[in-house]
Amino acid sequence: MDRRQLSHLAHRDHPVAAPLDDASVGRLLTLALPRGDERVLDLGCGEAAWLLRALADRPEVRGTGVDVSPVALAGAREAAAAAGLTERLTLHETDAARFTAPHAFDLVAVVGATHAFGGLLPALAAARAHLAPGGRVLVGEGFWECAPSPAALAGLGASAGEFDDLATTVDRVTADGWTPVHAHVSTPGEWDDYEWSWTGSLSRWALDNPHHPDSADAWEAAAAHREGWLRGYRGTLGFVTLLLRAS
Hints:
Layout: H1 3-10, H2 22-32, E1 39-43, H3 49-57, E2 62-67, H4 70-83, E3 89-93, E4 105-111, H5 120-130, E5 131-144, H6 150-156, H7 166-175, E6 178-185, H8 188-208, H9 215-233, E7 237-246
Keywords: Methyltransferase, Transferase
Pfam families: Methyltransf_25 (PF13649)
Protein name: SAM-dependent methyltransferase
């Protein structure tokens, strides 16, 4: 199965493709958008869940989303149309690292998409290039809750050097010229909900479409992901969403 289609199916019931619940998303957006009339850019927006939530609660906010996945952007357009938000949402199918815009943004989000830039600090550099004076950046990044075991690394397909612990992650951000003005560390419950949703959505699709040529691939992907999580990185990989201002 195409990786982008697989991700689309896995996130059907959890469109914020990161381990945050609805209340956490709402709290972060309240702090990130204090005026209620900001321009918002989401780099690696996926199905634009952050943007749609921001626009739905704030009729003067305008959003721009950038992603390479046509499947995800089609889902974003469909959701925007259903919510009556199409006129205030602009979507671009392009590499987020190469995106340019004719104006700056009051909030730039890169949540769970720093890999598209080659890591946390390159993602922050890209965000800074789009940021209006006094603006904010919302960045979501993984970190090690504890030293990763071989099983955890295998479950993630990661190396031990791919993430730091939380304190070191924040140190890297502050050394790069940013000040955290708020943050949310995903709880174990948010992680569990996200992972059960990911594997469950994909498994349900496979069960409901047994004759689809991708059904077996979806089933196997869900089973492998569940195994890698439950017997590997559960309790080891954390996720922090930082709200930053330039120092």
